[in-house]
Predict the structure.
Amino acid sequence: MNHQNKTVGLLGAISIGIGGMVGGGIFAVLGEAVSLAHGATAVAFFVAGMVALLTSYSYAKLSVRYQNRGGTVVFVDHAFSHNLLSASINFMLWLSYLVTISLYAVAFASYAQTFFHGDTTQWLKHLLISLAILLPALINLLSASFVSKSETIIVLIKITLLVLIIVSGASFVNIGRLSPTQWGSSFSIVVAGMVIFVAYEGFELIANAAEEIKNPTSNLPKALYTSICLVILLYVLISVITVGTVPENQLLMAKDYALAVAARPALGQLGFTIVSVAALLATFSAINATIYGNSRLGYIVAKEGELPKILGEEKRNIPDMGVIITVFLSLILANSIDLTEIAIIGSASFLLIFFVVNVSAYKLHNEIDANKKVILMASLASGVALATLLIHTFSSNTEAIGVFLSFIGISILFELIYGRLIRGHFFRRPYKKA
């Protein structure tokens, strides 16, 4: 790519990563982490962050070598010679983004319901979930540029608000609530970290922007490592404030909007309201950005002949059908699965994808000039993390396991059927190297 087309500096790349991670995730899954890790919620976020940080080494090496907006899709293709595995993983990545849209939409509805006094009904919840998906879809169809322009402002608002909660709540922390006597078991702490892992998945968006980043050899790794370290710090501090200032029974009663409850001790009802409004803004913008990204991921893969041509159609530089199909499937998912199951399915899907990316980096370690030991550690960490999550979920939430396995099955079946009947072959055309 021509050097003058590279418009994103180091700070811009870091904000892409932070914006991708601090989307709606922390607003949606904080209560889930508390219900499993209890006083060790901060430890759970740290453990999840370490898995993300190890995996980012693979992303750093791969994205420097293969600078392509296809990101994850391109890395797996290069490692596995465009076969059934890589094709299935690429389709699963597309499905996984539908899960994150659903997660944000359910979180949006949970925070929105706090503004309705009295018992809220199921129809109201489903109406709010649907509006949270349909309104951003309309924005995407009308003006793609609005999505990118508004994201920077919204990211700043989210970060400012989280810092405000940390600073204002610090003096209210009861250290006793964070004592190891209040922790869950070691296994449940790790499980908590893996359930909420979806709150970290957005760092890979930096790899998708690799073509536009100035001085990529230096800036890509710096952006990945810096953004993840900053988000780990942010999440750990938020967890300490939440668990340390609010009795656990109150957090569990308000599990789906725990972060708003965490603002109450220091900032009162005003704090609760401010956080709820910010959560609506954050989840709405995260849905907006994910619809934008997923419709373009579908567009790129469709242009390569790996997804139906309809996803590769665009008008005014907007992949209209990609947006519509993304929204249609997200509406079904968000309105049929509860928040816990969506968080588990989303985290499991991304852990599987990151495991495959780490194995891809291991296979390509000579070509990408990577340290085998670090990549082996990343592969083991993501593999063990996935296994831990699945073992726990198998005994506690078989429906979530069923949906996750069906995602894998659909991805493989899609490639088998589409590859044989439509393309007439399983093997895929290689992406151009950077």
In short: The chain has a mean pLDDT of 85.
